[in-house]
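My current task is to audit a protein record that another person submitted. What it holds is a sequence and that sequence's fold in token form. Thanks in advance; the entry in question is below.
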Amino acid sequence: MEFEVVMPRLGSEMTEGSVARWLKQEGERVEKGEPLMEIETEKAVVSVESMASGVLTKILVADPEAVIPVGQIIGIIETA
């Protein structure tokens, strides 16, 4: 089963952000609650934990210059 990793809303006024850095690479196992990526907002760079356990099968946004709206899919974790 696939779990869609989306750009999280890190604050009430946040509408977009950038993936500053993925802490896991495609093919690596990730556990729920483990740091998965760092998101850059207008105010800070924040480490974001994985919401699912499995294998990070696809990184859809790797460019740290890309501005992504909240809720857009940025990666896929295979959970089964």
Summary: The mean pLDDT is 96. The CA atoms of residues 2 and 46 lie 25 Å apart. The longest strand covers residues 16-22. The beta strands are 2-6, 16-22, 29-30, 35-40, 45-49, 54-59, 68-69, 73-78.
